[in-house]
Task: structure prediction
Amino acid sequence: MRAYQCLCGAALAVWLSTGAQAATISAMALNESVTSFTIGFSDTNTNGLLDFEEIESFSGVSGNNFGENPVVFMQILGIPTIAQIAAPFIPVGGAFDEDSWANLDVWLFGGDGNPSSTAATRNWSYQISGLDDPVSVVPLPGGLPLLLAGLAALVVLRGRRARA
Result:
């Protein structure tokens, strides 16, 4: 019985270790027209990319190209495609469709009563941290539960033989 409990505990540990990873994207400003920003997210689908529904925090961004007085934007409304960094998110109810959004290559920021504003991805350099190398991430195989069930059955049979 004790071996069965150890096996169940090991299976639970494997299952819990396959969860989401906390990650951060740092966008460093390449010119004086915008500020740097960070995005904290939890990679729940383990694809190694920022997806809109995974965003947990955003530092905000401001810039001089948003008007005469710099405006601070505290929300991300649209995400551009950035190779190995972010999956695109098309703003809902806006003037964009999938094709036009993909061709724009911009962030869409908004919030705090300010009108939304776009900013080109080329204004920043990007670094992602906190994730394992996406190439080395191995998904939980479908056969693992079957393997664990077979091992549990062997443990139970061995326990019955030892008692007999």
User: Anything to note?
Assistant: Residues 20-139 form one domain.
